[in-house]
Amino acid sequence: MSTIRDVAKEVGCSTATVSRALSHPEKVSKASLKRIHAAIEKLQYRPNMLSQQFRNKQANTIVILVPDIANLFFSTVISGIENVAQSKGFNVLLGDTRDSSEREKNFIKLVETKQADGVIQLRPYSKNSMLPKKFVTAVNACGCEDTPYPAVRIDNADAARQVTEHLISLGHKKIGLISGLTDNPHTIDRLKGYKQALAQAGIEFDPALVAEGDFTLWSGLNASEHFIRMTDRPTAIFSMNDEMAIGAMKGLKAKGLKIPEDISIAGFDDLEFSKYSDPPLTTVAQPAEKLGEKSAELLFQLIDGETSAQNEYVLPVEFIIRQSTAPPRS
Amino acid sequence: MSTIRDVAKEVGCSTATVSRALSHPEKVSKASLKRIHAAIEKLQYRPNMLSQQFRNKQANTIVILVPDIANLFFSTVISGIENVAQSKGFNVLLGDTRDSSEREKNFIKLVETKQADGVIQLRPYSKNSMLPKKFVTAVNACGCEDTPYPAVRIDNADAARQVTEHLISLGHKKIGLISGLTDNPHTIDRLKGYKQALAQAGIEFDPALVAEGDFTLWSGLNASEHFIRMTDRPTAIFSMNDEMAIGAMKGLKAKGLKIPEDISIAGFDDLEFSKYSDPPLTTVAQPAEKLGEKSAELLFQLIDGETSAQNEYVLPVEFIIRQSTAPPRS
DNA sequence: CTGTTAGCGCGTTCAT
DNA sequence: ATGAACGCGCTAACAG
Predict the structure, then answer these.
(1) Which residue in the set B53, B93, B135 is minimally distant from A50, CB to CB?
(2) Does the CB of A59 have a partner CB in chain B at under 8 Å?
(3) Are A291 and A152 in contact (CB under 8 A)?
């Protein structure tokens, strides 16, 4: 591999001029510029980024901590982040943490050792979270309430309340809930909204109507079986995400239940395929790509040392009524 | 942030000793080692990896080119790669290429500029592929036949032949095929195996029995509708991956067809949920994690300059018969 | 076992 | 507009 010196020698100028030609072309004469580019082409010169980064004390890289790269919602958030990062000339390192704090720690170490300039965490904050840490510029892209570091989020409780209110307004009184893991912050926030809506309507909360899932399709399917076995089955189900809702629909239909005639179901996230499910799913659209973009912008503000940065952004959601919800059989 | 010099000053030794304490502790006295570690702790010293990498001319990073990070098969291959990389102390950069060669090019540039030491490509090779390139150490983890650079793969044709032979041995003569995109190398290899099996059994290949999909669940569903509309419907279907098979099963069942009584179906990949599908899917298990591990090992051999490295590994598959295939109605 | 010295490739002064 | 010189933080070679 040729270095900047080889190019300088080829052109017959100093390395400083070559460097300038690349970083500040306006400070170099047209003539030199031309010859330098010719030499670069001829020698197949590629600046050694390791050297540049070392010199500039910036890796031009951010890390995204993703609990599950196969999750469609996360993929969309990642897209948003990548859009912004690319326009800033930053690389994006995807940290596939698989919900392991050990693996998370390793990725965070990349920032401590300067291999990356900042972190975007997609896992909502909880006590056992690695972040925040000293020396680590970080932002949460899928925040929950009371995240103790800069975060972008939606109002989960409010959104869950809207869904539940919708079901109540259709006339449902027994509303099943497919939750995420009990200690997941999003579960907690959304459960809060679910309870709020029930309370407002004077319906008592019934723990027997809650089936715990883990946000995967299969856990939704299992949850549906829980409801099917009940003697006094709910007439509607609110699933804390679309994947579980789709799993549940599969389970319910397999047992011969018609949706929404026999049982209504609503989800959360608005995945791409939720509008193609059978029937199309009533759900809450999270601005997933926007969450990614906003969090990336926020992170770059912090990296650039802008202290004025607001440290919480709550983005609006969109409640979408499709064909999976209807009034209960009278 | 403190540097190696601060630590040396604190301890009262030279920077070289501190450096050795970290990289070659056996060359440093116990006493010094102890004081150095104390100083590191006190000063919260973290070696600047940018500097190390620059000095060592190694980023200790490999890039995985992934066409679709939300694909379950790829996630598993990635796991395998990460296992090996971690044990080698390498970082893994996930290049989410979304099938865009523009994005692929950007990630490959990371190697050209030394920010990464090698590439593992998950997309099978085809003419328009960016790799191989000069100065870029690369390996393909999901190879097809005639990949022009080091690759790890399964024998796609042979596996497809096995599946088709199984269906033929059950007594099927009209065997539908749900293929991937026509120009996808895996489609080509698997189609070859399908045709071989038919030829061996003296069954003529009928293009009308081939429905083109794109490896997504939805394309499998669409394909099923194609078969349902046929007047002389196949009694069995071979789908080139499990996702399409599951989509097709959904479509067939929706039209009241029973699987396998009315129609048999076999897939390819053995996704985690294929054993839970209804009915459990007959399929070919790809050693996805092994493909990842083997390709990573191969890449590290190349990075370490081992020229003796074999440049193609064909890993065995496992054909798994479950309940989605049975003899045709007589 | 330890210190001294030199230099990796680049960008940025400060001269000219 | 250009060049000479320096140094970023670290490690390897050599000498002691």
Answers:
(1) B53
(2) yes
(3) yes
First to last CA, chain A: 78
How far apart are alpha carbons A261 and A254 in whole angstroms? 15
Contact assessment for residue A324 and residue A278, using Cβ atoms and an 8 Å cutoff: no
Rounded Cα distance, A310 and A294, in Å: 12
**Percentage above 70 pLDDT, chain A:** 99
Residues in chain A within 8 Å Cβ distance of B115: 49-50, 53, 91
Q: Which among B50, B94, B134 is the nearest to A96, CB-wise? A: B94
Quote the CA–CA distance of A306 and A320 in Å, as a whole number.
37
- Cβ distance of B1 and A135 shorter than 8 Å: yes
CA B161 to chain centre: 21
Q: What is the DSSP string of B149-160?
A: S-EEEE-HHHHH
What stretches of chain A adopt beta strand conformation (E)? 61-66, 91-96, 118-121, 138-140, 151-154, 175-179, 210-212, 236-239, 264-266, 283-285, 312-315, 318-320
Tokens representing B161 are: 């032949």
Measured at the alpha carbon of residue A272, what is the angle toward residues A270 and A278, in degrees to the nearest 5?
Answer: 85
Asked if B284 contacts B320 with a C-beta cutoff of 8 angstroms, the reply is yes
**Which pLDDT belongs to residue A308?**
65
End-to-end CA distance of chain B: 78
> Which A residues 218-237 touch B at CB under 8 Å?
218
Å between B113 CA and C8 C1'?
15
B182-218: per-residue pLDDT in tens?
999 999 999 999 999 999 999 999 999 999 999 888 8
Q: What is the DSSP string of A188-220?
A: HHHHHHHHHHHHHTTPPP-GGGEEE--SSHHHH
The rounded Cα B136 to chain-centroid distance in angstroms is: 19
pLDDT the model gives residue A138: 93
Question: What length is written for chain B?
Answer: 330
- A255 at B interface, C-beta within 8 A: no
Tokens of A213: 């899932």
Nucleotide nearest to A36 (CA to C1'): D2
- Residues B15-55: tens digit of each pLDDT: 999 999 999 999 999 999 999 999 999 999 999 999 999 99
**Six-digit token string for A88:** 């800033």
Count CB-CB contacts under 10 A for residue B217.
19
Q: Are the C-beta atoms of residues B299 and B139 closer than 8 Å to each other?
A: yes
| Of residues A226, A163, A217, A214, the one with CA closest to residue A190 | A163
**A269 pLDDT exceeds 80?**
yes
Considering only A127-141, B25-39, B61-75, which range has the smallest mean pLDDT?
A127-141
**Omega into B328 within 30° of 0, i.e. cis?**
no
Q: Which residue is nearest to nucleotide D4 (CA to C1')?
A: A14
For A107-116, how does the pLDDT look when each residue is reduced to its tens digit (9 = 90+)?
Answer: 998 999 999 9
pLDDT surpasses 90 at A126 = no
Among candidate residues B203, B202, B222, the one with its CA nearest the CA of residue B214: B222
Structure tokens at A106: 């390793």
